[in-house]
Design brief:
The complex is a heterodimer.
Chain A: H1 11-22, H2 26-45, H3 51-66, H4 75-82, H5 87-100, H6 108-119, H7 124-137, H8 143-153, H9 159-175, H10 185-191, H11 196-212, H12 221-232, E1 241-242, E2 245-246, H13 248-262, H14 266-282, H15 288-303, H16 308-323, H17 327-340, H18 347-350, H19 352-359, H20 364-376, H21 383-395, H22 400-417, H23 421-435, H24 441-453, H25 460-477, H26 485-498, H27 507-520, H28 525-544, H29 553-563, H30 568-581, H31 585-591, H32 611-619, H33 635-639, H34 645-651, H35 701-712, H36 729-742, H37 747-768, H38 774-784, H39 790-826, H40 852-860, H41 869-875, H42 882-887, H43 889-892, H44 894-898, H45 901-917, H46 928-941
Antiparallel strand pairs in A: 1-2
Chain B: E1 2-9, E2 14-19, H1 25-40, E3 49-52, E4 55-62, E5 65-71, H2 77-95, H3 100-105, H4 107-117, E6 118-119, E7 122-123, H5 128-160
Antiparallel strand pairs in B: 1-2, 1-5, 3-4, 4-5, 6-7
Helix pairs in contact in B: 4-5
The chains are: A mainly alpha, B alpha+beta.
Chain lengths: 958, 161
């Protein structure tokens, strides 16, 4: 159905589409579109255009805009079209407006009135069109204008309208949470809607709300679990099945919500274990959608309080993903592994070879995902291998965004796990050399600080060795062309401070190189300033040491050039340098002391030395200074922003003159059965790019060194994935001992101590994968191997199992008591505490499932009067079964029964073939008559199927 | 959340775009250029996902047409693949073995269908039947409206003759 009867557009439009289809180049296409724009501009301005013709013009405008050209001259006509009485034109108008306008466009104010009117229409299709437009166009300012009507529509008899109203309200919440905060209870009510589509749509806003704050929704856990159970048991109508999987999109959304609710909440998690086990068991790993559900299950299991049985199943599923030939699944497997190792780092070892395969795969997406995984599992034993790999990859890519990300990850890992300062400096040099413009400037400052302070408390010898090696490497690197500005600044600073320190290089040599830098980067004032100051330092060190230094001609010309520079900063530096040259050794030494970068500079923040001056002025009659915040007349400006959003919106535009927007009564807040206990989320630390605290002016050197110590000293380094709550104690202790062995010693030694364990692992894996190359194994060993020995691992994992089972046993009793109290409150029979340790077998069904909606209504207090006949059934006691509720919908709906019976037949046929092939693409039988018809029409239009567009005529599924 | 939907032909021609997050006209052109470059050059065996500017773009190829959706980094890629397929199945049912030409000449109808499946970047309806029923209801109303308009204009035309 549908497209029979041609395409319904004029010849002109078809010609346009055709000529664009045949355009050979972008330039040709642009020319065609520009001439079309001219035509449209002329035609559309004509006041007597028939309305149907206008509709086509608007569609042509949409087409022009879709091709990336500006059609703003026609926006106003699209807006006008939304006012039209005819539904066809109105829909076209709304479609065009939603495609053209962003929410901040000026024209939106003209549409609000139409939307208001249409929301009141008695034609539900008009209401639907208006609600769709609401979602796109209504901004924070205009929400109050439509809000009351949208809320009213939540009770509309048509489920399509209710669904769209829910989504519109969700959108309003996303735009301006404050404006709908008093209406959030509506979402809970809609969760018990009789239509599964509305219920499914309600999960979107609930997911958002729970993401922000889960504590008010803890009481819904049981309801979500019960809905999920019923969905998984195929209790929804058949039309919600997708390739034989029962309502997979709803299942996935529910799993996402459960993951949030169960995070860090033992009691909530325990309520989910049974259903999660069920879904794992039912999970169909042959179809794409089945795998999507399984993946979401893994995410959920790794987010809630860990359960050993479920984790085992999750690990098993993950390994299936990883072993698959399908790249998509391997990608998901890597992601899942990244989630699981947060709970149990040992899982990674089993899959080391699969991970390395992914790392070396030509598929860029897979490679990047694997880098993300490696980033998550970096520790001090494997940091060198991982960072080296990352840098190697970073050098070869052009993608700016990803390069920035991977560079900052390298920096972060290096700062956190560097085995030695020497390695750190080398790594930083590489990062700066290849991505210097992309890393944060604080990283450069941190590097300078590290070189200046060295090991901090350790001996001076090591420090100076570090510095001279830095100077060596920088003098070498200076030969390379095209260095990033930030890196050059670091180089200049280090050369100025330490270039001549160990006497290896003469002062004039260093000055010469610095002059070269300044000369080569004539346009970069910052680099020139750094170079000049570095030259000044070298001169003053020499003068202070009593040596006589010849002025190099290139240096003199540099000074001359800079003293006439447009930049006052450069000028000042040049004059200071000249002035310094004329001073005697003693003065120079106090002006420019040697190695003074770590000295404290005391800043008198209260400016007390000005006290006498202020006093004098006051005595002469000057007005006393009034601090900013005490000045009257200024206060309201600073307070302006802090007004609550509700008030601000009421000051904004009003769309209903002389009538206050009605505030809905604050709804009765549901009684939460679960006391919000320890809800502090155990989030892993985030590693933003700006980890460094902003450089302070007056920090004591102690504080400074402590700061660096945090970055580079290894004793205190926290295990990255080792959340203290979840990781087994044995594992963390073992890894900390291996860290200790590495610390202070060079890294080679560290590998040596761990090599016995590595060999052990190597041997083990070799038995399994005889064909795997030695090189890969070596990489595997360096990535995974050196963490713990086999025996140790077994012991620790055993321990963790024991520990958690103990906990589980303990808490089941808690659940029992809680459950019994709950059941007495609700008056319904509570489920028996699920047998948590026995997920492998089907849990005994001791009772018929409770209707989740009934439960919910119980929670909401007095049941709101339902308008729809179906929902009155919900409240009725005799129909606890979802199936019964949904089953009759297609029958009661007249349009449902009147739809073409062919459709269902066709669909059934599709499904059969789908089931037979079991592949994700739908295999459709060829439909020769259809394609012949289309061919004929196409020929009429003049599009020839041969030549450049042979694929045009192949069916999409073909 | 889905940030935008793109339909690109193998030649890099845009067939349909729907933006759920605000993008200026300039940004849109840039996004399309960037993504078509990346996606069209990928081999058939590789992942159907591309990480891009902190988002993920999931794409699926049907004959000569690429359906792409841009999702947030924490979304489920496999699910998005199936949302694309869900959309294509509904298109297929509506047009009767859909081909690229249908979408070229009837892109506004494809927009209407998309509006019934996705709203504000979220999947609003996962039942094919419900979507088909709604679209049919809209179409039938539009058809009657059209006929009326035709007949009125005919009458006017005859009277004025």
């Amino acid at each position: 159905m549908g497209s029979q009867g041609g395409w319904g557009q004029s010849k002109e439009f078809l010609d346009l589409v055709k000529s664009i289809g045949e355009a050979r180049s972008k330039a040709e296409e642009d020319r065609i579109v520009l001439s079309e724009i001219e035509t449209l501009k002329r035609r559309i301005a004509d006041p007597d255009v028939p309305r149907r013709r206008m509709k086509e013009y608007i569609i042509r405008l949409v087409y022009v805009e879709m091709l990336g050209h500006d059609a703003s001259f026609g926006y106003i006509h699209a807006v006008k079209m939304t006012h039209d009485d005819s539904l066809a034109l109105k829909r076209t108008g709304y479609l065009a407006v939603t495609l053209f306008l962003n929410e901040d466009h000026d024209l939106i104010i003209l549409i609000v009135n139409t939307i208001q009117k249409d929301l009141r229409s008695d034609n539900y299709l008009v209401v639907c069109a208006a609600l769709t437009a609401c979602c796109r166009l209504i901004n924070e300012e205009t929400i109050p204008a439509v809000l009351p009507q949208v809320v009213e529509l939540l009770g509309h008899p048509k489920e399509a309208v209710r669904k769209k109203a829910v989504m519109a309200l969700h959108r309003f919440y996303q735009r301006a949470p404050g404006s709908v905060s008093h209406l959030l209870s509506n979402f809970r009510k809609r969760l018990c809607d009789s239509d599964p589509g509305v219920m499914g749509a309600t999960l979107c806003p609930l997911f958002d709300l729970i993401t922000v704050d889960r504590s008010p929704y803890k009481d819904l856990v049981m309801s979500f679990v019960s809905i999920l159970k019923q969905v998984a048991e195929k209790r929804l109508p058949k039309s919600y099945e997708y390739h034989q999987t029962p309502a997979p999109f709803i299942q996935i959304k529910l799993l996402k919500i459960l993951a949030l609710l169960g995070n860090g909440d033992k009691q909530a998690s325990e309520q989910m274990y049974t259903i999660l086990g069920d879904i794992f068991r039912k999970g169909e790993s042959t179809s794409n959608i089945g795998n999507a559900i399984l993946y979401q299950c893994i995410c959920c299991v790794s987010s809630i309080c860990p359960n050993t049985k479920l984790l085992e199943v999750a690990a098993e599923t993950t390994s299936k993903f990883l072993k698959s030939d399908n790249h998509n699944l391997r990608y998901m497997g890597i992601d899942a592994l990244g989630r699981l190792i947060k709970i149990n780092p040992e899982i990674a070892e089993e899959h080391q070879l699969a991970v390395i395969d992914c790392l070396e795969d030509p598929d860029d997406t897979l490679k990047r995902k694997t880098f993300e995984l490696l980033y998550k599992m970096t520790k001090s034993t494997n940091v060198e291998v991982i960072v080296d790999r990352m840098i190697e990859y970073m050098i070869n890519i052009n993608d700016h965004h990803y390069k920035t990300e991977i560079a900052s990850r390298c920096v972060e890992l290096a700062e956190q796990y560097a085995p030695s300062n020497h390695w750190f400096i080398q790594t930083m040099n590489k990062v700066f050399e290849h991505a210097g413009d992309l890393v944060n400037v604080r990283v450069a400052h941190n590097l300078m600080r590290l070189i200046a302070e060295g090991f901090g408390d350790e001996d001076e010898g090591a420090d100076s060795q570090l510095r001279s090696s830095a100077v060596d490497s920088y003098l070498r690197i200076l030969g390379e062309p095209k260095l990033p500005s930030v890196f050059l600044q670091v180089i200049c600073w280090v050369l100025g401070e330490y270039g001549t320190m160990d006497g290896k290089y003469s002062a004039s040599y260093i000055i010469g190189r610095l002059c070269d830098v300044a000369e080569a980067h004539a346009t970069d004032d910052t680099v020139k300033a750094y170079a000049t100051t570095a030259i000044m330092k070298i001169f003053s060190f020499e003068i202070a040491a009593g040596k006589k230094l010849e002025m190099l001609p290139e240096c003199q010309s540099l000074i001359d050039e800079l003293s006439a520079s447009h930049s006052t900063d450069l000028q000042q530096r040049a004059y200071e340098l000249q002035a310094l040259l004329g001073l005697d050794a003693h003065v120079v030494e106090s002006v420019m002391p040697l190695d003074a970068s770590c000295e404290d500079i005391e800043v008198d923040r209260s400016l007390s030395f000005l006290g006498s001056f202020v006093q004098q002025s006051l005595e002469k009659g000057a007005r006393p200074y009034i601090p900013d915040n005490e000045r009257s007349g200024m206060s309201h400006i600073s307070n302006f922003r802090s007004q609550d959003p509700h008030e601000v919106s009421s000051h904004g535009l009003r769309f209903e003159a002389y009538e206050l927007p009605k505030l809905a009564l604050p709804s009765n807040t549901p009684i939460s059965l679960v006391p919000p206990t320890d809800l502090v989320p155990v989030s892993e630390p985030t590693y933003a790019r700006d980890i460094q605290p902003p450089p302070k002016v007056a920090t004591s050197s102690d504080a400074l060194s402590a700061d660096i110590g945090v970055k580079l000293r290894l004793e205190g380094v926290q295990k990255k994935w080792g959340k203290p709550t979840y990781s087994s104690p044995a594992a963390s202790s073992s890894s900390s001992t291996s860290q200790k062995t590495v610390n202070g010693v060079t890294h080679l030694d560290g590998v040596g101590t761990a090599s016995a364990q590595t060999r052990d692992n190597l041997y083990d894996s070799r038995r399994q994968h005889v064909e795997v190359s030695a090189e890969k194994q070596k990489l595997a060993a360096s990535l995974f191997g050196a963490s713990s020995s086999k025996n140790e691992k077994k012991a620790s994992s055993h321990k963790s199992i024991k520990g958690s089972t103990g906990n589980v046993e303990k808490s089941t009793t808690v659940v029992k008591t809680v459950a019994s109290s709950e059941s007495s409150k609700q008056g319904t029979s509570a489920p028996p505490p699920p047998d948590l340790l026995d997920l492998g077998e089907p849990a005994p069904e001791s009772k018929p499932s409770i209707d989740p909606f009934q439960q919910l209504e119980g929670l909401l207090g007095p049941t709101p009067v339902q308008t729809t006949p179906e929902s009155s059934v919900v409240a009725g006691p005799k129909a606890p079964d979802l199936m019964a509720l949904y089953g009759d919908i297609p029958i009661t709906n007249p349009s449902g029964s009147s739809t073409n019976p062919m459709v269902t037949n066709l669909y059934a046929a599709n499904k059969n073939s789908q089931g037979a092939t079991n592949v994700s693409t739908l295999k459709k039988g060829p439909n020769p008559q259809d394609s012949l018809e289309k061919d004929a029409i196409a020929r009429q239009v003049g599009v020839t199927p041969s030549g450049k567009n042979p694929n045009l005529f192949r069916d999409l599924f073909g | 959340m889905i940030n935008f939907v793109l339909l690109i032909s193998r030649q890099g021609k845009v067939r349909l775009t729907k933006w759920y997050s605000p993008y200026s006209q300039k940004e849109r052109a840039k996004v399309i250029r960037e993504l078509s470059g990346v996606i069209l050059s990928r081999g058939p065996k590789l992942c159907k996902f591309v990480e891009w500017r902190g988002y993920k773009v999931v794409y699926r190829r049907y004959a000569s047409l690429y359906f792409c959706m841009c999702i947030d980094s924490e979304d489920n890629e496999l699910e998005t693949l199936e949302i694309i397929h869900h959309f294509v199945e509904i298109l297929d049912r509506y047009f009767g073995s859909v081909c690229e030409l249908d979408l070229i000449f009837n892109f506004h109808k494809a927009y209407y269908i998309l509006d019934e499946i996705l709203i504000a970047g979220e999947l609003q309806e996962s039942s094919k039947k419900t979507v088909a029923r709604l679209i049919a209801a809209q179409d039938s109303l539009v058809e009657t409206a059209k006929e009326q308009a035709d007949s009125i204009s005919n009458v006017i035309a005859q009277v004025t003759k």
